[in-house]
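[Solved] Which block belongs to which protein?

Original post:
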Amino acid sequence: MTLTINYRYRLHPDPIQEQTMLHWLEISRKVYNYALREIKDWVNARKCSLNYCSLSKEYIIPANKSFPTYYNQQNALPLAKKAFPELREVPSQVLQTTIRRLHDGWNYFQQRGYGFPRFKKFGQMKSMLFPQFKTNPITGWQISLPKIGIIPINLHRPIPEGFVVKQARVLRKADRWFVVLTLQSEVSRPEAQPHGEAIGIDLGLEKFLTTSDREFIARPRFLTSLYRELELLQRKYGRTKKGSKNQEKVRLQVARFHNHIANVRKDWQFKLANHLCSKEGIGMVFVEDLNLKAMSRGILRKHTLDAAFGQFLNVLEWVAKKHQIYFSRVNPDGTSQTCPKCGTHTGKKELSERRHRCSECGYETDRDHAASEVIRLRGLEKLSTQGLWGIENAYAVGLPGTEATQSRSEAKPRREKN
C-alpha cells in the first residue's frame, strides 16, 4: 500500500530566481490559453444552426480532424518550440503538466455538464508542477529545482523517515513563494475502525459547533470582523491608476490581507479539530453530510463562506485519521425536527426557535444539542447497517435498529453434520 502526504514549505528565492519563475508562469499561461483555444475552435466548428450559417465567424477546420486530446497537444510541443523559442526556457515537463491541468478541467466539465474551462488573464497562473526528480531535491535547508538551481527553503518540519519526494508544486501567494512536496512511502496504514465512545457534531451559524456531549463553540467572524479594514484597502485600490506601480503595491496589500484571514481561519479550525479528537475515550466522530453548495447561495452566504464549513469538515476528517478515530458523515435531513429520545418527528422549527421540546416524551434541550444527538444516533445506526459487528467497542450491543436481531450470545449453536 502506498501512502501519499503533502507538506508545504516556504521558499526564499533571490530576485533573479523570482523573475525566472514569474516568466515561466507567464509562458505556462500562454500555453494553457493556446491549448484551450484549439479545444474551443474544434467544439465551435462542430455546432451550427440548422437553417442558416453564421455571418460573423467561420471555423475552417476539416471534418475529419480529431479532437485535440492531451496526447496530441503534448506531442505538438516539440514543434511549437521551434516556432516559439521562448518555450525552450521552461522545463518540458512543466509545460506538459500545464496541458494536463487543462484536460483535467475539461474532463471534469464533461462529467458534471457545466464549468467550461476559461482563459487565464495575466497573473492568474499561480503554480507550476515539477512531476518527478531523479534524486532527492532536498539538501539540508535547500531545494534544487530544474533550470532554477538551489533555493533556500524553510524546512520547519523534517520529511518523515522512509518517505521519498515524488513531485513538487511551486506556487505564489501574494508576494510569497511556497513549495508543496508530494511524499510517498510503501507503508501499511490501517484504516480507523469504530471503537470507544461516539460524538455527534452539529454545525451552524449562531453557534459554529455543538457536540452531543454538550460542548458549544462560538463562531468566530474571521472576515466580517475585519471587513471594514478590507473595504478601505479595496477602495484605495479602486482609486489607483490602472497599470501603475502604486496599483500593484495596493494590490499586494489586499492579497496579503486575504491570505492573513485565510491563515487565521485555518489555524483556528486545526486547533478545534485537534481539541475534539483529543478528548478522552473518543473513538468515533459523526457529522452531517451537508449540501455546502446550496448553503453558500442563500441569504446568509457571506457568513456561511466566512465560517468555511467544508474546509473544517475536511480538516476534521484528516485530523481524525491522524488520531486513528473513525469518521463518518450521515444524512442531514430532519436532524432538527427529530427527538433524540423517542424518535418522534416534532415538525418544522423556525430559525428563531432555539429550544427543542418534544410533545410525546417531554424531552427539552437546546435545538443544536438535540440535532447533534440525532446525528450521533444516525451514525451508530449506520454502523449497524454496514455490518461492522465483528469489531469490539462500547456500542457492539444495543445499537439502534437491532431489536429484531437475535443477539450473538443468544444465537443457537449450529448443528454438526454427521
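(Second protein starts here: sequence line, then its C-alpha cells.)
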Amino acid sequence: MGRLAMLALRAVLVMLAAGTAFVQAVMVPLFAIDLEDLDPGYAYLRIPLLALTVLGVMAVQVTLVCVWRLVTMVKRGTVFSDAAFRYVDVVIGAVVAAALLVFALGVLLAPGEAVPPGMVLLIGGAGVGVLGVALIVFALRMLLARAVARDVEATHLQAELDEVI
C-alpha cells in the first residue's frame, strides 16, 4: 500500500471517527429530545430506537479501530501474521452485529402504522446489504489466511535453502 493511499485512508478513518463521536455527543441527545414528541401510541419506540442508534454507532467505531490497527500492521509489514486475524474477526463480528441491529430496527417498526410496509422492506434490504459486507470481509479473511500460509511456507523453504547453501 502506497504512502499516499495509507495517509488518505487514515484521514478518512479520522474523519469517520470524529463523525461518530459527534453523533454520540450531539445527535443522539437531540434525537432523544425529538423522540419525546412521539405520539403516545408510539412512545414505546423511544428507548429501543435510541439503543439501536447508540449500538450502531458503536459497531462502526469498533470497525474503525480495527481497520486502523490493520493499516498499522500493513505499514509495519506484519499484516501477514496470525495477529491480523483477531482484528479481521472483530470487524466481521461488528458488521454482523450492525446487520442484526438493522433487522431489529425493521422488526421494531413493522407492527402498527408507524412506518409504511415498503419502508420496513427497505430496512430489511439494507440489513441484507450489511450482511453482504460481512460476507465480503469473510472472503477477504480467507484470502488473508491463504497469504499467511504462503508466507509461512516461503519462510520455511527459504530456511531449507539457506541450510543447503
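Accepted answer:
You had them paired correctly. Confirming on the second one: Helices lie at 3-35, 46-76, 83-109, 117-164.
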